[in-house]
Every structure is written in structure tokens, then in C-alpha cells.
Write a structure and sequence with these properties.
The chain is an alpha+beta fold and 242 residues long. Among the domains are: 55 residues; 81 residues, no CATH class. A hairpin with a 7-residue loop joins strand 3 and strand 4. Helix 1 packs across helix 2.
Amino acid sequence: MLRWLRNRFLTGVVVAAPIGITFWLIYSFVTFVDQVIKPLVPSRYNPESYLPFAIPGMGLLIAVLGLTLLGALAANIFGRSLLDLGERVLNSVPLIRNIYAALKQIVETVFQGQQNSFKEVVLVEYPMAGSYAVAFVASTGRGVIRSVVGQGDDVIGVFIPTTPNPTSGFLLFVPRAKAIPLDLSVEEAAKLIISFGMVTPDRLPDGAIPQAEPGKAGAGLMPDDSSDASTSDPEPTDPKPS
């Protein structure tokens, strides 16, 4: 009876925990935005000033409307002129211009899809030969990076996230030939990393265990049929008749 109660309790925890954590994260995000945006709205324009109760998500709604209006303003000639003027002012400040340029490039890359960032999952040898880490292809190596790392061959920049927090990690540049592509989506790879490897895909990705060449890193991980054939005993031949 105690074992049955324990199993049912654990089953309930498994079912309720993802739902509860998801709603808690949504509630925390909405509450944070409300606390930041609502004080910026004048009381005469705030509907909560005329209502006897607070409206959850009002700050988030105002933020969405404000960003939409800002995007519409930036799409016309007058808005673009103001943005150009503001960028010229920021670029004239020594420290601010570096921060602004880096943040602008990152945001444009993520939201406008200028590059195929985080669209491919690969395996790379890290942190030592023979051990592989899951990585996301973030960019393509160009210029001096390609000439130094790839010796003229294709070079990719991969992001290796840490476990269980995938927002931090390492950026490595490796030759394309040394990256093993995985038949995994970004979501499946993220689940694999966040869960400490406990949530794995049902299928074995093609090329997940590559055939290593002799003399290279990872050689000997896969059996070589040719070596077996060379070391096996030769088949006996029938003696010639006298």
C-alpha cells in the first residue's frame, strides 16, 4: 500500500511539475513587465485608475503596442531619419558605440534571420580527442579565421552550451570536415542538454558514431573490417592430387 501511494505521488509530481513551472514562468514574466511598464504610463491614460481592480498583463499589452508603433514609425522616411540621427549621436560616444554596435548586430542576426544561426546540430571533439560535445552551428568562419583554422577549407563557428544552463557556453571555430552533423532538431538537442542527457531522441542519428580514420583523433572507436580480414586465418586449400 505504501509503495502504491509513493508511486502515485511521484506520478502526480511528474505530471504537475512541468505545468506548474510553465505557468509560474509566464506569471513571473507578465508581473515583471507590468511592474516596469505601468509606472511609465500617466494615471489619466491608465485604465486601472478608473477601475477598482488591477488588470493582469496590462503592462505587457502596452509594451507590445508601443513596440508595434515604434516599428511602424521606423518604417517610414521620418522615422528612419530620426534613427539615423540617433545612431550618429551614439556612434560619437567612444564606449557607447562599441556596445550599441555589438548589440545591434546580435539582435538583427537573431530576429531578422541574416544568418542560419542555430539551425544545425553537430558533434565536435571537445574538450579532448575521443570525447564529443553537442554544438550548434552559429556562423561561418571568414577571413583570417578561415585561413588559420581551416587552411583554406570551410570553417564554422559552433556554440557549445553548458549543462543544464544552455545560455552560457563556449564559441569554437573548427573545420567543417571535423564537425559531425546530427539528424536532430535544435529543440531536441536543447532537451538533451538541459536534461543532463536523460531525454534522448528515440532514433540514432546518422553519423553519430563516425568511422574514424587511422592515425586521427578517435581512431579505433569503430572496428575495421579490413584489419579483421587481414588477420584472419586463410581458408584451407585442397591438396593437389599426386
